[in-house]
Write a structure and sequence with these properties.
The structure is a homodimer.
Chain A lengths: L4 E7 L2 E8 L6 E5 L4 E4 L3 E8 L17 E6 L7 E2 L6 E2 L4 H7 L8 E6 L10 H17 L2 E5 L5 H11 E2 L4 E4 L12 H12 L6 E6 L6 E6 L3 E3 L8 E3 L6 E4 L5 E3 L12 E2 L7 E5 L7 H8 L4 E6 L10 H7 L4 E6 L12 H9 L2 E2 L5 H15 L1 H7 L15
Parallel strand pairs in A: 6-9, 6-10, 10-12, 12-13, 20-21, 21-22, 22-23
Antiparallel strand pairs in A: 1-2, 1-5, 2-3, 3-4, 7-8, 11-19, 13-14, 14-17, 15-16, 17-18
Helix pairs in contact in A: 2-3, 3-8, 6-7, 8-9
């Protein structure tokens, strides 16, 4: 068993040195000194150098006064999983020492403090978790120059939307994840983390998602939390800004930040927390044959916020109109599109005009997921009637005034 | 009122001649002799030439023996709407004479017969409509060399999927729509129809969707009906093949067909119709906070087919597992991803492995909408148990063996 040992090998005519990682493919996976993992299917073992200590020395990290201070809050997910080099088991510890041990370059960018908030798979996130997360970020922003949140990628865009609505922030709040865990040669964890660190000390004051911008290790995009969506199950560049440009591009390894669109700048907004979310809001995807009794089912359970993922410009079948009209009397119904790209416009066809007459509100170019969170936020903090007025107004960049995309 | 009259105008230093179309923007819209519409904001009227007859002479079309015969079945939607040149009203008539009058170039490609099946907005399509449509196409394929179905774009990919599963076809069955109606200068109706006509006489034997491939009028894509999705509310190139290459590219105006992927060729399959669909199948999009009681609600109403649009590689929150396990005893549950792009893989993380143990079936790289229709088709024709075996097997190109996309 070489796992956990530092070795020197010859492969592809070159010499490589690194720590042997657990591998499930049969290939040799080396963690190189650059922080990257590399996989080798054919190689020649030259030397076993030493065993690596599993316990990383704590309290040895001295902070540099010339660097900004960043808080990293971990919520779990692939990026936070750490493989014990000797046992191969995934550990849930999460300390600044571990981060710096894994990705030493981060210590050149900022002083890091770490906090383990959750260790859950992101598909298990609930609105209550978002409230607790927003509160923690709010507290951290009082003391730190920026906050990074490590998060599972499955629901990262839901969480980023929630924090973006709940928190008026004068500083960067950067969600970062990984599509491939750090025991895989193709892991995106280290690069995403470094780019998010650079972003967290940059001149921006909003909630962003930082992930690979291409399938190569050449740049990350910073997406606006309320305009981003996971668009691929496995690719490292799975996250895309929808109906908006990414906010920034962070080149790697230079970590040069190029701003690509308008943004809230650092210090532009005051720090404020709105920590309520109404949980009884539902997102319903329409399809041919789905009956409107589904709306009535949720209404009878006390739901008063409805986001519909309609077809095309924002349609459902005509036999839904009567139900929607009734529901709209005491509820808010927002129309979005399962096309995802483009803007809702219910003034073109008959069905759309009937929907508007029934009281349904056009969701502009809102993503269905963002509309869901926005309704949770608006109903929770302002009630139904005010929510009806605010839902079409851009609050934190979730609605672009024109759709060029 | 110039509407409906043939005029000669001067604009941008050139002379234009055409029929004045109804316009809602205040601009002058001319239908040029090329079949295209052009909008003019500044122009000088030179001459009013004549009024256009609204009634187009019938029975004057002589069929050419050297051309293939194509049946066009209209189901409604933007592409089938025809504006009466004099009144500006949208008419629902649909005859071969009208088509040839609107798009005369089609008579050079094939002999056309037309049939008005429905005149409904596509958001009002129901599974029963798909059954009737499949039957009509089946009958038409006995006599014609190809079939074109004009369809509203909102649910065209659902209908194309349904016909693709219900019909084993040795000849082309081409769905075509338009994002902009023919009274708009930017209408894509004529070009899409010409490209679909060329496709309907080509060497292919499957159900395709033919729409603009770019925002210019330079080419259309033929998408496989079971791999395509409307991905933009308004763009003319709204349709995209997901997890697959388009089947063909049809250049315009040359109408040259270039095949881009594997395909069923003309004559490769026998003509067969499976005209059953189980309507009690539901597609449920998961989001953080959605309770599994929704599954139980549909189950109690007699639903036995469930497609879940999970997160990432195919996840829902852990508290759904017990319900799913129970439901799987007498139902089929297929997992797809709201990422849309990529493949389901529930063997990577704990939640996924628990889902598999509960009896949930991985939906491979199936689109959620295609998985829904596939379940309707499989349960309707084969019952639950056989459906469980067949759902992961590629039947008509809905599952690609590798995901390179």
């Amino acid at each position: 068993m070489l796992t956990g040992k530092r070795v020197k090998i010859k492969a592809k005519g070159k010499i490589f040195e690194g720590i042997v990682m657990p591998s499930f493919t049969g290939n040799l996976v080396l963690k190189l000194d650059s922080g990257y993992n590399a996989g080798f299917c054919e190689y020649e073992l030259i030397e076993v150098l030493e065993e690596v200590k599993t316990q990383i020395r704590g309290a040895e990290i001295s902070k540099r006064e010339d660097l900004p201070n960043v808080k990293i809050i971990s919520t779990g997910g692939t990026i936070a999983s750490r493989v014990d080099y000797r046992t191969g088991a995934v550990t849930s510890q999460f300390t600044a020492e571990e981060i710096i041990s894994d990705v030493p370059e981060i210590a050149e960018i900022c002083n890091v403090d770490a906090e383990l908030l959750y260790n859950i798979l992101s598909e298990n996130m609930k609105p209550n978790n978002w409230i607790e997360l927003a509160r923690r970020v709010y507290e951290a922003l009082k003391k730190y120059d920026g906050v990074i949140i490590t998060h599972g990628t499955d629901t990262m865009h839901y969480s980023a939307s929630a924090v973006a609505f709940m928190l008026s922030t004068p500083k960067p709040v950067v969600f970062v994840g990984a599509q491939r865990s750090s025991d895989r040669p193709s892991s995106d964890a280290a690069m995403n983390l470094l780019c998010s660190a650079k972003l967290s000390i940059s001149d921006v004051g909003e909630v962003l998602v930082c992930m690979h911008g291409s399938t190569s290790d050449d740049f990350c995009y910073a997406h606006r939390g309320v305009k981003v969506r996971k668009m691929h199950t496995s690719r490292r560049d799975a996250f895309h800004s929808i109906n908006a440009k990414p906010v920034a591009r962070i080149d790697y390894p230079s970590l040069n930040v190029e701003w690509l669109s308008w943004r809230f700048k650092r210090g532009e907004r005051d720090l404020k927390l709105f920590d309520k979310l109404e949980e009884k809001v539902v997102l319903i995807k329409f399809f041919p044959g789905l009956g409107s009794d589904l709306i009535e089912y949720f209404h009878s359970k006390g739901y008063r916020g409805f986001v519909i993922e309609g077809t095309g410009l924002g349609h459902v079948s005509t036999d839904w109109i009567e139900t929607l009209k009734k529901i709209c009397e005491d509820s808010i119904v927002v129309m979005t599109s399962q096309c995802l790209y483009g803007r809702i416009c219910d003034r073109v066809y008959d069905t759309g005009r009937d929907l508007l007459k029934a009281g349904v509100i056009e969701g502009e170019d809102l993503l269905p997921e963002t509309a869901l969170i926005k309704l949770m936020f608006l109903i929770g903090n302002y009630g139904i009637e005010k929510a009806k007025k605010l839902v079409k107004i851009n609050l934190v960049g979730e609605i672009e005034s024109r759709s060029d995309y």
